[in-house]
Amino acid sequence: MPIERPTCRLVFFYARIYVLNRMRWLSMPDILYENDGVLGVWMRLFITGATGYIGFHVATAFRRAGCEVFGLTHSERQVHRLERNEIIPVFGSLQRPDSFADIARESDVIVHAAIDSHADAAALDRATVEVLLEGASSAAQSATVIYTSSIWVLGNRGGQPLTEQSLFSPPKTAAWRPDVEQHVLNAKNVKGLVIRPGVVYGKGGGLTGMWFQGASNDGVVRIVGDGENHWAMVHVDDLADGYLRAAQSGLSGAVFNLADASRSTIMKMSGAAACAAGNIRQLEFVPVDRAIQEMGHLAEALALDQIVDASKARRVLDWQPRHKGFIPK
Length: 329
Hints:
With 329 residues, the chain is an alpha/beta fold. It has helices spanning 5-27, 53-64, 79-84, 101-105, 121-137, 177-185, 209-218, 236-247, 266-277, 288-295, 298-302, 311-316, and strands at residues 32-35, 38-41, 44-48, 68-73, 88-91, 109-112, 144-148, 191-197, 199-202, 205-206, 220-224, 233-235, 254-258, 282-286.
């Protein structure tokens, strides 16, 4: 059977990328780069979830800093989006670890930012981390593996500020993550780091996008719970900067909560989003039990009341979020 022309072009594209970058790897010195006044060494990054909300912005932040960036994608349609942003596509999926195992072994930094909600997320996440750790540990020099966890693993604390030392109390939708965190932090011959993002917003994505969508669709913004709870918030650009700083820190065995210092309630934030959409009709508060029946255990997480202390990241990484909160001051 003859090979179709689009397939030929795609194969040639990947072959060309591979050859060019093998040549660059052999000749590229460890040059210094500067990103917003922060100096670091040139790095080769591999990131899962490169076309996802978090992963794409992390990948582009590393590329802007002068790093060589390889991004995993399972969609041919996303290949050109990555290429336009100077991210080298790695075509594969979490279900096919052979599709990314080689590049993981050849990378200085590995960021796991993918989650597959259509599969057994917990089992697939554990298996993927195992492959990435194995690749990092077999690298010529100790590689850094950054695992994307969630601030949700800390649960509710009755208004008490949550730090990296707070005890785990995850909702069911994040129940497996504490074990994976510990596996990364205790891995041998690897610089294991864990980042716990707050609820990510900005540039039209994230959970807050549901508020804008609700207001624009039927004039109703639906909120899980009574709206008096708090989410730990972080803008996607500030989050990406945190990953970059963690990667160039040289640290191992460290956890960082990344969230801004805002303390607005869900009621205030969702109301602000609805007003910005321009056609608000009402805020509808959905009891948690009913919300769980309608949308699964994600509703339990959306009802969490969290105040997060991110002073460790500011102190250790000099991370200073430029966006002060979802509601502009």
